Amino acid sequence: MGHEYQKSLQKIQIFLLLLNIQSFVVQGFALRDCRISLNVSICDSGNLAQVPTDIPPTVRGIDLTGNKISKIQVTNFINFPNVTELKLGNNQISSIEKGAFSHLISLRKLVLNRNKLTTLVNGVFDGLGNLTELLITYNHITIIEPNAFRPLRKLKVLNFSGNKVSTTEQLSLIIKHTPHLNDLTIRSIRMSSFRSSEFANKSTELRLLDISDNPLKFFQITTNAFPNLTWLNIGNPPQKLIMLWDIPDKAMVARVDTLDISRLQVNSSQKMWDLLSTFNTSLTSLRVDSARCNLATLINKSCSIPTVSTLQLRQNNLPHIRSRLFSSCSNITEIDLSICGIKGIANDSFMPLSRLEILRLFRNKLTEVPQAIRTILSLKELDLRNNSIENLGCYDFANLVYLKQLSLQWNKITSLQKCVFQNLPRLQVLELHRNFLAKLNNAFQTSLPSLKVLRLFNNSLATIKKEEFRGLPALENLTLAQNNIHILEKGCFSGLKSLLNLQLDENDIRSDTLDGCFKGLVNLRKLSIGKNRITYTTSSPLKNPPFLYLSSLENLDFRSQHIRGKGALPSNLLEGLTNLTALDFDNINIVDIPEIFFNYTPKLDSLDLSANDLMDFSPYVFAPIRNLTKLRVTSTNLRALDFLINAKLKKLDFLQARKNAFSVITEDIIKAIPSIRYVDFQYNSFTCNCDSMDFINWILTNNHTQVFDAYNFKCYYPPQKKNTKLLDLNVQSCIVDYAFICFVSTTCFNLVFMIIVFIYHFMRFQIAYAYYLLLAWLLNTKHKNRKAPNQYDAFVSYNVHDEAWVYRELVPHLENDQGWKLCLHHRDFAPGRPIVENITDAIYGSRKTLCVISRRYLQSEWCSKEMQVASFRLFDERKDVLILVFLEDIPSAHLTPYHRMRRVLKSQTYLSWPGTGPETQLFWEKLRKALTCTESKAADRLLLTVTDEE
């Protein structure tokens, strides 16, 4: 028995445990200081002093960047088994408890940048056996305990920059426990020397080592501690220091292919090119920004390394490039000469660069495209950004038949010539934005058969002429935003059959300019035409809808039209957009939407109507777009969201309705959007009473929808609760506990039922008698003051089984012999009247009531009523009106259930029928006297003996 009890107890405990787990899992997404985006909890309010406790355990990422958290505790992350990325950067974390991350078994990336950590104690990373990336830059770490990194066996990327661990001895503790480390960055840690011997006998897969921005005075690699190293950065010392280096065996760095020695200065007894020669067996990319040696010699020595193909020489003082500067660089494929103050380039300076594919001349002082560029026949990418080029000539890019990308933005170009881009058959990307272009001069009518991207935004273009881009058959992206365009000639985009993305936002385009301008853009997917002056004054259909030919368009950005007054939407404005999925109508000054407006966009998935004065609109507007999943109605002055009830947007999963005028979210509204996953109701005027009960309960209990910033929703009504928090409202008083009501009702019903059964079983005769007694009393009360004349001498009350005696004995003697007038119910009751009224009228309409008593009489329902009415008249009127005639000898004990009968027998005249014999004459004589005597004389009673055993 005890064993069975123990098993039952265990089952109950397991059930309660599962119940607790379930209650935790289904908690809602109304987070106090966070939001969920792409399954990542983002808590960037900037005010958090500790890790929130209401983050759902199902998230895969947690971002707590930029708060005021000072301590990480063991309990902070115990319920996040699926989190793979945790960001704790830019806080005030000074301590992390041992095992604080031990429950993050799936964590892959941990960010602790820019905090106040000083020590990494043993156990700080316990449980992070799957961590592959750790960023812990710019703290104040000075101590790393011996086993701090022991759990990080799978770590591949570590950035430890900006700390104060300045010795390789402590850094070796990291390498010791991270055998799979690929990428180690330890910049700006005040390291003055680096010796590979400190990392000896450490199993490592290190490929990238960045120890730049350190005051290195000594760099030594004398052991094969980094056999897989391919990327090494030892440049950019914070001050002018002379570094001694010691690499006696080139085999120690035999695999390094990328080297950065920017701003590095070596001892006078050592030469920079001697350092370079150490890496010449594998080096392919060399970066020497701000070289502190003879640049020409450096370039010559660098280019003499046969494997070098990329040379980055930024921020060097090189105002003029001479003819023979690159004479040894025939193997170079990429040169970066950005920010070198270049003003001029000798025409033949690039001729030796027969294999050059990428040339970067970003942010120099060139006023024209250098002629030297024409000699680089192999060039594929040319960057001339941020110079002072004013004009482009017809031959500036001559012979560049392999050029794929040309960057000319941030110059001072005012116009183009028709011939400027000729002979560029492979050009795919052309960037001309942020210049002063006012005219294109048919520059793109010349064939650029491969051009896919053309950026012309932020210029001074005013007119786009007919067939302006007809020479661009492969163009996919055209950006004309941020110009002064106010004229789009018909057919201005003709020939752009491959165009997918067209940006015309932030211009001066008006509605009449759109007539027919998009014809021919049969494959256009995205059109941005916001921040113009497109406006309509009526909802009447347009004769020529502007988007009629854009049947492939999927995304239309029409936002923020600069208009005065209130605009309207023509009912057929969207005609032709049969494949449109996203529409942005933010801030276009409309006050209404025609009911048939979306008939032309059956595939619409995302709609933005924010910043309009809609107030309210018909829910039938949404009838053609029932597949809508995203809706934004922020700042639309909506007084209610009732339109959602009839809109039937069953697939809606994103709703943003900030800054409106509604105060209550009803249960019907919630039920109308069953698929909703994210809602934003910030800055509305919520009512804090029982009307908001359903909304509050939904916020706190739903496990499907994230209600953004719900804990900061404020009350505005009633006045006494203004500025209190909506979720602080106690709604318990609003709840009708139907379960409790059902319990009470059922309990009462069962009790009443049991009482009735008990009474029926033990007291049914007494109850029946009491019922008739009550009924008789009611009838007596009704008739006792009635002064009706006596129509009969006596009313005869008898049972039907005694009818033979009444008609054979009683009626002949009393009516025929003695002349009395009797009232008999079979003969004298008025047909059609209720029987109770007949009985009452008969008793009160007769001088006497004569009851013929037998056992059958006592069992008769109607006889009992007649007896009760008569007895009421007897006792209440104090009149001698009742005569009892017993046809049978009935013992007093048998009269016990009939209390009224026993009471009458004790105080009233009664006669017994003697049967046959001489006594019958005496019986009739006494009955005559009883009928004759006055009603008030109680002393004139005739008392005959009946059996009474009391």
From TrEMBL:
Ranges annotated as spanning the membrane: 738-760
Gene Ontology terms: biological process: inflammatory response; innate immune response; toll-like receptor signaling pathway
Bilayer topology annotation: Single-pass type I membrane protein
One Pfam family here: TIR
One MF annotation (Gene Ontology) recorded for this entry: signaling receptor activity
Keyword Ligase included in the entry's annotation: no
GO cellular component, one term: plasma membrane
Subcellular location: Membrane
Membrane is among the record's keywords: yes
Domain TIR per the UniProt entry, residue ranges: 790-931
UniProt entry keywords in alphabetical sequence: Glycoprotein, Immunity, Inflammatory response, Innate immunity, Leucine-rich repeat, Membrane, Receptor, Repeat, Signal, Transmembrane, Transmembrane helix
Coiled-coil residues: none
Family according to the record: Belongs to the Toll-like receptor family.
PANTHER family in the record: LOW QUALITY PROTEIN: TOLL-LIKE RECEPTOR 13-RELATED (PTHR24365:SF522), TOLL-LIKE RECEPTOR (PTHR24365)
Protein name in UniProt: Toll-like receptor 22a
Organism: Boleophthalmus pectinirostris (Great blue-spotted mudskipper)
Gene name, Swiss-Prot/TrEMBL: TLR22a
